[in-house]
Structures are given as C-alpha cells and as structure tokens.
Amino acid sequence: MTSWKITLTLPQRLIPPVTEIIYGLDPDDFPTLSDFEVAPKGFENAGKKRLLEAFFTVKPDLARLRHRLDPLLFAAGLSPNDISLSAVVEKNWVLESQKLLHPVDTGRFFIYGAHDRDRIPEGRISLLVEAGEAFGTGQHETTYGCLQAIEDLDRECCGAMPQSVLDLGCGSGVLALAMSKVWPTFVVASDIDRIATATTRANAEVNHVTVIDIKAAGRGVAIVTGDGFKDKDLSRAGPYDVIVANILAGPLRDMAADIVAHLSARGSLILSGLLTTQEQMIASSYARQGMSVIRHYIRGEWTSLMLRRTGP
Predict the structure, then answer these.
(1) Is 82 in the same domain as 148?
(2) 99 within a domain of the structure (yes/no)
(3) How far apart (Å, rounded) are the C-alpha atoms in residues 82 and 72?
(4) CB neighbours of 191 closer than 8 A, spacing ≥ 6?
(5) What percent helix, strand, coil does the chain show, rounded to 5?
(6) Is 103 domain-assigned?
(7) pLDDT for 248-260, tens place per residue?
(8) For a FRET experiment, which of 68, 80, 135, 212 has its CA 20 to 30 Å from that of 247?
(9) Within 10 Å of residue 238's Cβ, how many Cβ atoms?
C-alpha cells in the first residue's frame, strides 16, 4: 500500500488555519496530521517554526491546496511551492524489525529468522525462530549460554541419550526445540504464560518437531502451561535427566529445592537468567540442595551454569 504525505514548514501561528484548510481538502479522506518544532535555515530569527506533515490514503490535489493556502503563505513570506507532496510506501514493520536480528551461530546450533533461511551453514542444527511476544530468539546472552551448555552436555553423554528433559520457563521454546533436535527423546516445555506455550507450539510446527501429550511420555515435545512443579502433570513426568531453567535469579533461588527434587540422581542442571554478580547467590542456594557448579558460561554481564549432584 502507498499513502501520501504533504510537508510544509511554516510559522507556529499559522498551524491552526493551515490545519483547518488541509482537513477540508477532501471530505472523503480525513488526513492524519503531525507537527514538530524545527529551526530550518533562514528561520533562526523569525520565531518558532513548525514542520507540518499530513498523511492521506488517497493522493491529494496539490494544486488545489496551494491555491487555498496562497493568501496565508504570501502574508508569511512563503511560497505555495514550499509545499511538497511525496509518496510513502507502507512497510511491514514486524518484518523490518525481524531483519535487524542476526542469526545466532553457537557452533552447533544456528538460530535464524525467515529472512536468513538462505544463509544456513552446512552441518548445523538449525531452528527457525521469529521475533515475537515470547522471550527467546537465541539473541540474548542467557539463551546463548544455555545452548552452549547443551552442546557440551551432549558431547559428555558420548551417545548416552537422556530419557527425559525439561525446559522450565520455556518462553518461545528455543531450548526445548534445540534439545529435541539433539536428543530425540521425551522433552517437556513448560511456562506459566499461555503466549509462551502457544509460541512454542507454533515454533515446534515450523521446525517439524512432533508435539505430544505429556502423559504419553513418547518422543517429541510436550508443552505445558502451568506454574512450575505445582502442575501435577509436570511433576509426575519427572524425575528429569536434564533440567534447563533460563528464568531469573530470584525464581531460581526460590525454586531450588523443587528443581533439584525433580532432577534424576545423575541428572544435569543448566541454570541461566542471572547476572554474573548473582552467580554466588545461586551457587550457594543449590549447594544447600547438594548441587555443585561444574561449568560456567559467561557472556557479557550474564552467566549460565551447569550443575550436578555433589559426590560420586
């Protein structure tokens, strides 16, 4: 679609009468007007000036407007030729904002938007994730750190695939989908926010990941909308061999006992969403639950942690 913009710089005192004339130009196309204070060359000593912009859905009659404004402009020392008309091409601003997001390449994972689908390197696990209302496009340092931890954990597994995996506070589902690509096993994606779980479901579909019922416990991603382990289905599906929780330091601290209680005896825990200054607090909270930090992933001011149970 194309709209039309009329632009004119004039003294502030002329804004009301000029606005009235522009509004009356076409009774079937009511324009949208805005004006801004400016100081264009030549106007520095002439008092306050305003840049007036009027947007029309139908091309306005510029000659007619110039004729109607001629007396006002002449009195202000302006010319009708100072009025300009230009076409404004409408943009899909969601698409434009998505184009600003660069692909995320962690070495094994490649997270991209549709505008980068022709840039997928060979040998990567690729996930199409568009920017949306739910957190998680892979851009944030915390998501990046978790993806790195998942890569390391898979290398350590040496082919021994975890039987059950949980992405707690899944947001857009990036981490759950990444784990389902690495380990075609029982993966649960849980969030308290229905927008998040709906987004996860949509992202699973576009990435050809099977969505299953959590009670089925088969291969695929089970998506649960609930308040953490207060959700009975989520709780009963444990214990989990891997739990990833990329939330915030406060909830991670408060949920420490619950999270560890739902981790299998030899399970691995990946925590993120905490600043480097909060690492010691979280490490201490989980140490009280018998967990030790075995790896740190620092990116900017954010830290992700991998933990396992203390002892043999």
Answers:
(1) no
(2) no
(3) 13
(4) 134, 169, 170, 171, 197, 200, 224, 225
(5) 35, 30, 35
(6) no
(7) 899 999 999 999 9
(8) 212
(9) 17
